[in-house]
Amino acid sequence: LMKPIIFNGQYFILEEAITGDFALVKTWKADRAGNAIFRKSARNFNLPMCKAAETTVVEVEEIVDIGAFAPEDIHIRQIYVHRLIKGEKYEKRIEPLSIRKEGDEEAKSAKPGDDVRERIIKRAALEFEDGMCVNLGMGIPLLASNFISPNMTVHLQSENGVLGLGPHPRQHEADADLINTGKETVTILPGASFFSSDESFAMIRGGHVDLTMLRAMQVSKYGMRGAMDVVSSAKTKVVVTMEHSAKGNAHKIMENCTLPLTGKQCVNRIITEKAVFDVDKKKGLTLIELWEGLTVDDTQKSTGCDFAVSPKLMPMQQIAN
């Protein structure tokens, strides 16, 4: 077994880098020397794959003459490329096509439990602050971005390599090369930028993201079962948004998670349809907001651990439409 190494009080496992005999990469264009470029958000992990492989085979939509690219615009340098293949009859599939219609409120759907989801969404939206860089998980966290005030600037970051996400596109704006982590079609705002996934995780692990909002399968004061990299920095506020209980009323907020942890003592706040809890690494959970009509006893019965009650306990807040 590999032994953990401690850096600044955090445990890490040191492993050998992943390498491969071949890397098969799809790009937009390449010149005849092998220099290649991607289009919009299509970089993902393609760049580090090229660097980690003995032989890199690049499939392109178009091969251009040497010198067609400005040197500063090249994404994959020729030194990493061993074979070029020009593909034919490309079909760029969009999965799923997520579009915005005039007058739509994207946070609303016709699915069962819609009221519960909307309640969580409208509370989660109050976590945004002007100037924040925010990473949002799929589902409820992403829908909360629809309630960001037009008077507030929030920079949304996506792990696949976008900083400056905008709303879903209208039908005519949909672009297979402009997607978020969940492969949903998106738009970008003025000032946005594209990069590869390894740089995206450098932003996250380096603590440059102010807020991560995500779902989880289980949460306790000791950690959570859900995502891994996005909760890795102690500098980033981590907010879990989820339904209070699983199917069959099984507990999701627990004394100890029964599923393996993906983040240790990383959660700062939990938002459900019933309550809002602050989480302290030593003291545990404190109930700070409660949905109107529920009692502390009601919440305790549906929660799998004890919690303190804030002396400033207030009704669960909701952002205005």
TrEMBL record:
Entry GO terms, CC: mitochondrion
Gene3D superfamilies, per database record: Glutaconate Coenzyme A-transferase (3.40.1080.10)
Residue ranges of coiled coil: none
Pfam families, per database record: CoA_trans
Signal sequence interval, chain numbering: none
Highest taxon above the source species: Eukaryota
Gene Ontology molecular function terms on file: succinyl-CoA:3-oxo-acid CoA-transferase activity
The protein's name: 3-oxoacid CoA-transferase
Taxonomic source organism: Mandrillus leucophaeus (Drill)
